[in-house]
Amino acid sequence: MVKNVAPLFAELEGRDFYLLSGVEHGMRFSAWVDRDRLPSLTGLTTDEVSYRLERSLKRGLIEKRTIQYEGYRLTFEGYDALALRTFSKRDTIDGVGAKLGVGKESDVYEVSSYRPMALKFHREGIGNFRKLNRERDYTADRRHSSDLYTARIAAEREFDILEDLYPTVSVPRPVDHNRHTIVMEKVHGQELARTTLEEDAVTPVLHRLLTEVSRAYDAGYVHADLSEYNVFVTEDDIILFDWPQAVDISHENADELLRRDIVNIVRYFERSYPGVIPALDPGEIATAIATSNFGEIRL
User: Fold this and answer.
1) Looking at the annotation, which residues are catalytic?
2) Global pTM?
3) Which residue among 185, 211, 229 closes a domain?
């Protein structure tokens, strides 16, 4: 588990970030950065590098490995610190609050700004990096990607998709992104999986959800990982979350992934509210969406 580095900010000094930035730059060229390269990468003296390495190691912002040479690399905590530093300097956020949620590939915190926002740290790659790389298109062309790089590309991709979809599709409003993190609108609601709908609301909510899937398809995307765990229900709407794995509708598997999304959602409603929704054919719904005929589907 990656720890929250926000409480460490009061302890960190400007030159600590010189060291972290230098290690980050060095990792573009090798998995472990040779200590001898750090003075040139950071602009710090050899003695200053030693001091900053000790401080960063103590706080878990970097890790050390000695085989053929003494090497260092950023941990996710160090990467988090760099991203938070950038958001602070941009005045995007001015504080980090409570954790809002933990996903299989992300951590989300409330952050303060001119209004409450949500800060999402992508964690793709932790614990299952090789399998993830085989499955995700956005790292398929890099044989030696690091987990930090995978998370960064996922965040960039999700931010770009949110910008494409918002506000046509009901997704969180994107605000800013840096490295492996995204700042977005904070949504007041809860996961569909943790929501008990009134019987007369079940079919309207399902129809609303499928309508947003259809709008996303019309905008050029299939979510490709849709389930009751990345749909939020608010007082008067639903919002679709977690888009880094989305595929363009031109993708060779787009229609198959669309059908899987529909199956996941329809089966969830059938399990959770037996006998409440009409009998539905996910394949028929997926075909209607893919042919821009979802408006003809009646639930």
Assistant:
1) 225
2) 0.91
3) 185
